[in-house]
Amino acid sequence: MPLSTSTRHERHGLYPQAGTVEDFQHNLAAVQAKIAAACQRAGRDPAGVRLLPVSKTKPEASLRLAHAAGCRMLGENKVQEALDKWESMQDLADLRWSVIGHLQTNKARLVARFASEFQALDSLRVAAALDRRLQAEGRALDVFVQVNTSGEASKYGLAPEELRDFMQQLPAFSALRVRGLMTLALFSAEAARVRRCFVLLRNLRERLRQEAPAGIVLDELSMGMSGDFEIAVEEGATVVRVGQAIFGARPLPDSYYWPAASGFETQESA
Ligand SMILES: *Cc1c(COP(=O)(O)O)cnc(C)c1O
After folding, report:
1. pLDDT at 255
2. 32, 106, 172, 248: which sits with the fewest CB atoms below 10 Å from its CB?
3. Residue 207: is its pLDDT beyond 90?
4. Residue of minimum CA distance from atom 12 in ligand 1
5. What are the Cα distances from residue 88, in Å, to 59, 64, 255?
6. Which residue has its alpha carbon closest to ligand 1 atom 8?
7. Quick check: pTM over 0.85?
8. 102: exposed, middle or buried (Cβ count in 10 Å: 0-12, 13-18, 19+)
9. Are the C-beta atoms of 122 and 100 separated by less than 8 Å?
10. pLDDT of amino acid 12
11. What are the φ/ψ torsions at residue 224 (nearest 5 degrees)?
12. SS3 state of residue 249
């Protein structure tokens, strides 16, 4: 396994804004080419990696361009923003939504209304609230369990050692279709430390697969974003969540989304 792939976090803020369908097509093709190259290095089939474009903070017009360029599922970090976008884009009947950010129990009913996928399950309370609302709506939801692989106190997700007991409880929630695990790696320019997070998630999946209760399928590994998706693919990602490399840089600093990212520039890459 090659170990030299570096992170691209230092490019944050430099991704140009995608303003036309052609821009989106170009960016999507560029990311897919990097995924294919990472697959080749790791001896993987690129068909086993799904690219989830992440549209958070971007205006509706950008999302419509992404859809025109072929995107059929978009990832959003905040529930209210995702719901607003879903409501205003009802005319795009084939566009589906993945909620990839932490969910508070009182917002579960919103997710149950419109989302096709939820990637940040990290508590039984949220699982129960989602299941109850989904049953009422007659819907089901693809779900990923979020794991804190970096050990940072401010990151969401279950600790690795909590995962086994958590999994055993999930069959009680029949509207949740558990697909796999999700993580946010350490936000660092040190590629080896980032890679360690991805390896940990893959090893957890291999271990838990054997003991997973009936109906709980741990096929998927959602890991990797604009700054580190090539490393994630090398380590087995089946879903990469890529925003800025497709849509362009976000105006807000990453600390707005992940408290742990604040100070990254000065602590890690300066
Ligand atoms: C924003 C976000 C991403 C994508 O980050 P980019 O730097 O835009 O690629 C991935 N995962 C989660 C959970 C996010 O909130």
Report:
1. 63
2. 106
3. yes
4. 100
5. 11, 11, 28
6. 243
7. yes
8. buried
9. no
10. 58
11. 110, 135
12. coil
